[in-house]
Amino acid sequence: MSGHLTKAWRDCAVARGAKLGAALGLVVTLAVAAAAADQPDSFSLADRNGDGAIDRGEFHDRRVEVFFYADRNRDRALEPVEMTGVSEDSFSDADRDGDGRLSLAEFTGARAADFMQADRNRDGLLSKEEADSVYRDAAAAR
Ligand SMILES: [Ca+2]
Ligand SMILES: [Ca+2]
Ligand SMILES: [Ca+2]
């Protein structure tokens, strides 16, 4: 398995493993779970420039990566079967047009407030602590 495929596989596992708290919802949980949390090197994967924080661009890029990793059948949409562990309610909340699939725009753009919600000290960056604490909240809401 190539390095890239190994990374893709691991991110799929992260997406599959992300269970959702209703309070936080689908996108932030997936994105932050992938960006930080239980995978020791996930935060550094998202932190492209290695400055110890995730900025908005890095946050968005990470969501896009998670989307394509999770889209196993490469139809540029996420069906529930590609997001096992996600509750029906969380899925339909994110599925704005109700077609039963999440487009990239629905996945990345549905919740403009996610980043701000995670950015507790409002400095425009997610520190590892901020990302971790959102993940812990999401875990607690399971
Ligand atoms: Ca798909
Ligand atoms: Ca949809
Ligand atoms: Ca911050």
Helix and strand topology:
Layout lengths: L2 H15 L8 H10 L6 H5 L6 E3 H15 L6 E2 L9 H7 L7 E2 H6 L4 H5 L6 E3 H13 L2
One calcium ion binds next to strand 2.
**Which of globular, elongated, flat, extended, rod-shaped describes the shape?**
globular
Please tally the β strands and state the result: 4
| SS-derived structural category | mainly alpha
Helix segment tally: 8
Order of helices and strands: HHHEHEHEHHEH
In whole angstroms, how far apart are the ends?
33 Å
What are the distinct ligands in this entry? calcium ion
Average pLDDT, all residues = 75
Walk me through this protein's architecture.
With 142 residues, the protein is mainly alpha-helical. It has one domain (3-141). Helix content is 54%, strand content 7%. It has a two-stranded antiparallel sheet. α2 crosses α4 (56-70) and α2 crosses α8 (128-140). Bound molecules: calcium ion (CA) (3 copies). Residues 119, 121, 123, 125-127, 130 line the site of one calcium ion.
Main features:
mainly alpha, two-stranded antiparallel ribbon, binds calcium ion, globular, about 140 residues
Short description:
The protein is mainly α and 142 residues long.
